[in-house]
């Protein structure tokens, strides 16, 4: 498929300008930890578009946090299955909302990072060192994106906490990137929230890390891209996924 004409493309962007999403629920081994408990959720569901901004860390900034920030720290055993759940608004699932959990046009990858932190409820998040534990991008054979799978699964994404990492308090940065307007930079839309975790058990491995901002560049092929064509590959932004 060729690039959509500029008029049609502009209409698409305009029609989906508010079809955003918020990560707002955590499940640990299938057990719901409660609506917005332990997650730094914003009062607005809009994206970050500047990869050099500190707002790329845990959202916030132009999307003010709910006040006060949750004082809940979610206990997660190393090696556990964690599920993150997204919805269009903080009201949660709404079958009557055609843009819930996110508009179907907002195709792109989904990723999860962890960063060790002295106190998971501290307000300062700059300077943390992050490692990626999960990613899902494009299935080339079907041209299906991670966000397509998120929508099919009613807003839920499941991944595993590495069993070998050190116990302690962490922030979990869970992110999706919508690429519907990513033909030029800034155009990609970054949606992320951070959940506050206490990881128990585990081992002594310290994975290699990256910084936010810094891990992404606007020129990355997974960030500035025309998705309105038959793609033969897609490079997910950021580092490789850490495995034990």
TrEMBL record:
<feature type="signal peptide">
    <location>
        <begin position="1"/>
        <end position="19"/>
    </location>
</feature>
<keyword id="KW-0136">Cellulose degradation</keyword>
<keyword id="KW-0732">Signal</keyword>
<comment type="function">
    <text>Lytic polysaccharide monooxygenase (LMPO) that depolymerizes crystalline and amorphous polysaccharides via the oxidation of scissile alpha- or beta-(1-4)-glycosidic bonds, yielding C1 and/or C4 oxidation products. Catalysis by LPMOs requires the reduction of the active-site copper from Cu(II) to Cu(I) by a reducing agent and H(2)O(2) or O(2) as a cosubstrate.</text>
</comment>
<keyword id="KW-1015">Disulfide bond</keyword>
<dbReference type="GO" id="GO:0030245">
    <property type="term" value="P:cellulose catabolic process"/>
</dbReference>
<dbReference type="GO" id="GO:0046872">
    <property type="term" value="F:metal ion binding"/>
</dbReference>
<keyword id="KW-0624">Polysaccharide degradation</keyword>
<keyword id="KW-0560">Oxidoreductase</keyword>
<feature type="domain" description="Auxiliary Activity family 9 catalytic">
    <location>
        <begin position="20"/>
        <end position="234"/>
    </location>
</feature>
<dbReference type="GO" id="GO:0008810">
    <property type="term" value="F:cellulase activity"/>
</dbReference>
<keyword id="KW-0479">Metal-binding</keyword>
<dbReference type="InterPro" id="IPR049892">
    <property type="entry name" value="AA9"/>
</dbReference>
<keyword id="KW-0503">Monooxygenase</keyword>
<keyword id="KW-0186">Copper</keyword>
<dbReference type="InterPro" id="IPR005103">
    <property type="entry name" value="AA9_LPMO"/>
</dbReference>
<dbReference type="GO" id="GO:0004497">
    <property type="term" value="F:monooxygenase activity"/>
</dbReference>
<dbReference type="GO" id="GO:0005576">
    <property type="term" value="C:extracellular region"/>
</dbReference>
<protein>
    <recommendedName>
        <fullName>AA9 family lytic polysaccharide monooxygenase</fullName>
        <ecNumber>1.14.99.56</ecNumber>
    </recommendedName>
</protein>
<keyword id="KW-0119">Carbohydrate metabolism</keyword>
<dbReference type="Pfam" id="PF03443">
    <property type="entry name" value="AA9"/>
</dbReference>
<dbReference type="GO" id="GO:0030248">
    <property type="term" value="F:cellulose binding"/>
</dbReference>
<keyword id="KW-0964">Secreted</keyword>
């Amino acid at each position: 498929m060729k690039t959509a004409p500029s008029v049609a493309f502009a209409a698409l962007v305009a029609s989906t300008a508010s079809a955003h999403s918020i990560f707002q629920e955590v499940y640990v081994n299938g057990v719901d930890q409660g609506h917005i408990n332990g997650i730094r959720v914003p009062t607005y569901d809009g994206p970050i578009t500047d990869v050099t901004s500190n707002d790329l860390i845990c959202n916030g900034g132009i999307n003010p946090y709910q006040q006060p920030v949750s004082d809940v720290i979610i206990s997660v055993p190393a090696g556990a299955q964690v599920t993150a759940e997204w919805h269009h608004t903080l009201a949660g699932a709404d079958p009557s909302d055609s843009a819930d959990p996110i508009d179907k046009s907002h195709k792109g990858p989904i990723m999860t990072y962890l960063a060790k932190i002295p106190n998971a409820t501290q307000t300062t998040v700059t300077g943390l060192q992050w490692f990626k534990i999960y990613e899902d991008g494009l299935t080339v054979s079907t041209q299906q994106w991670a966000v397509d799978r998120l929508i099919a699964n009613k807003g839920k994404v499941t991944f595993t906490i590495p069993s070998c990492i050190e116990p302690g308090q962490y922030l979990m940065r869970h992110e999706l990137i919508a690429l519907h307007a990513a033909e030029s930079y800034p155009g990609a839309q970054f949606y992320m929230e951070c959940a506050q975790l206490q990881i128990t058990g585990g081992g002594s491995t310290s994975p290699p890390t990256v910084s936010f901002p810094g891990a992404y560049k606007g020129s990355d092929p997974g960030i500035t891209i025309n998705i309105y064509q038959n793609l033969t590959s897609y490079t997910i932004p950021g580092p490789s996924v850490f495995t034990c």
